[in-house]
Amino acid sequence: MSYSNQYLASPQLQQSSPKNRSLPPPPSGPPYQPTNVNIQLSSSVPTNSIMSSDVVNPFEKSQNFSQLQIENQRLRDENERLKEQVNLLSLRGAGGSNDFNIINSVQLVTNIANLRDMLNEFTNLKLGNELQINQSAAFTLFQKYNCKRSIEFTKLYHHENTEIFNSNYSLGNGLDFRQILKFALQRLTIETILIKLANHIESVLSRKITPASHNETLEANLIKISNDFIEYAYDFGKSRSGTDELTKTLPVKIRQQAATILGTRAFHTSHPFITQLSRELLETMNQYRKISNQQKLHEIQQMIPQLIREVIRVLVFNLRAHDPSPDVKFFEAGESVDLEQMEGAFEPSESLNYEVEICAFPIIGTDLNTRNRKLFKKAQVYVVEKIRAKGVITTLASKSD
After folding, report:
1. Sequence-ordered list of residues with C-beta below 8 angstroms from that of 38, at least 6 positions apart, any chain
2. pLDDT digit string (tens) for 274-316?
3. Nearest residue to 346 via CA among 333, 337, 359
4. What tens digit of pLDDT does each residue of 86-116 get?
5. Residue 258: how many CB atoms within 10 A of its CB?
6. SS (H, E, C) the chain
7. What is the C-alpha to C-alpha distance for residues 142 and 228, in angstroms, rounded to an integer?
8. How many CB atoms lie within 10 A of CB 180?
9. Of 126, 132, 140, 98, which Cα lies nearest the Cα of 322?
10. Compositional bias (Pro residues) at which positions (predicted)?
11. Do 133 and 123 meet the contact criterion of CB atoms below 8 Å apart?
12. Which pLDDT score is estimated for 300?
């Protein structure tokens, strides 16, 4: 599945480019529904821990936790302030499109790395016995992304062994259930945010704006107006004679500056769209995992609004600020491994023997379907070894985290 370099999937917001395509609806999986089983991860506890004389006062522990929460929020706010300064400095300091691209390319690579770190933390399944997995929901997700090898093995183990997932989450023959599910949850998170964003913008633009709704519709209207301006400026340059460079570069400059401003300030964490999507995303994740540690659950809840903003900022606005705008593409299960476009835990010399089981993070770059492609980030994939003989399945587990 690929996402073109438009802002959103809404047809009326697409640029006049043949590469633009709408987001397809999520595929539906086959009817197989295994039994729902809660699985607890094992966690080793020192035998002398309960005998320790260093008993922490509950009130003091609660007070320390509150202080840590305050400090954590302060650091998040400071980080946002510094990001805004970097974006605005790049905007003011860019004398031309090439200068702008140089600055933005460096920042884009950094932002992509930070986003991947956030996704890894958000989809973390290493919480010992404080986390339970909904087996049935996990299987359904594997079916959604057509992870055939995972489905085959889980069906096999489901019939032969009721305890199919031990503490190491092995499905047999090297398949790492925990890592496959983590990768699938990362892809689900990204796609959910992008699709919900497209739906939100389309909904805003299809209804009448009132004084009461003016503030929450600013982003959608700014996107629409800037896209219209870019299209008119482009048509004006083509249909009106002249040789000045300003008219030629105006559409690009407007797109870059509008995208930079939106990437810096759009959709604050308290925006109604972010608030609503945060609740929906938490409910979605709770379908697949249950976290019993209330402190960890609170941390996850606190990071969701910022994660949503980062996905939108990096994969929508940051890409639009570059010229040409990069595309985003997920590789599908069964595709052969391509060293130039993918990264994972496989030996480069043996890459021809492997195929994709699940793609967690998309490839980001320009001209992705040509040899002239320029990449900002390779796709992160979990790979399995290709079937060499009928009835024989061998696998290779990908890196953790």
Report:
1. 132, 133, 134, 135, 290
2. 999 999 999 999 999 999 889 989 999 999 999 999 999 999 9
3. 337
4. 554 444 444 455 555 555 788 889 999 999 9
5. 21
6. CEECCCCCCCHHHCCCCCCCCCCCCCCCCCCCCCCCCEEECCCCCCCCHHHCCCCCCHHHHHHHHHHHHHHHHHHHHHHHHHHHHHHHHHHHHCCCHHHHHHHHHHHHHHHHHHHHHHHHHHCCCCCHHHEEEEHHHHHHHHHHCCCHHHHHHHHHHHHHCCCCCCCCCEEECCEEHHHHHHHHHHHHHHHHHHHHHHHHHHHHHCCCCCCCCCHHHHHHHHHHHHHHHHHHHHHHHHHCCCCCHHHHHHHHHHHHHHHHHHHHHCCCCCCHHHHHHHHHHHHHHHCCEEECCHHHHHHHHHHHHHHHHHHHHHHHHHHHCCCCCCEEECCCCCCECCCCCEECCCCHHHHHHEEEEEEEECEEEECCCCCCCEEEECEEEEEEECCCECCECCCCCCCCC
7. 40
8. 27
9. 98
10. 23-33
11. no
12. 93
* Token representation of residue 86: 């970097």
371 burial class (0-12, 13-18, 19+ CB within 10 angstroms)? exposed
Contacts of 261 (CB under 8 A, 6+ apart): 91
Instruction: With a cut of 90, say whether residue 200 has pLDDT above it.
Output: yes
- Tell me the backbone φ, ψ of residue 365, rounded to 5 degrees: 175, 180
| CA neighbor of 313 nearest in space, from 115, 167, 126, 133 | 115
Instruction: Give mean pLDDT, residues 353-368.
Output: 95
Residue in the structure block whose two tokens are 């890196």: 399
Q: How confident is the model at residue 172 (pLDDT cuts 50, 70, 90)?
A: low
User: 385 pLDDT exceeds 60?
Assistant: yes
Cα gap 338→335, rounded to integer Å: 9
